[in-house]
# Entry
Amino acid sequence: MPIGTYSTQDGHDGVYPWKQCPSNTTMPFLGGHTCHSTDKRTILSALYNSINGTHWTDSAHWMTHMPICEWEDISCTANGCVTEINCVNWNLKGTISEDVISLQHLPVLDLSDN
# Structure
């Protein structure tokens, strides 16, 4: 099953038959049955909503119209790839959105002390 496709059997056979993920989504793992967004703003918004973003202690610029690379504790490359999310001691609660796996250039996700 190629990357960017998903299993239509909800994991019953793990691989086949498969379909192409819709535009602006991907499935980075073999045998998956759910496609994930590739839009960085959508991914970070899903993260915000999944871990109690409205109650964070420090979330300057999150969920604003500002470029996501200017959001508090988000680091990016010069071409806008998210490379770090550092939300240490922010009162995060909940389950991390699975869409975070689609941030292909993210080596640092620090959600410690929450």
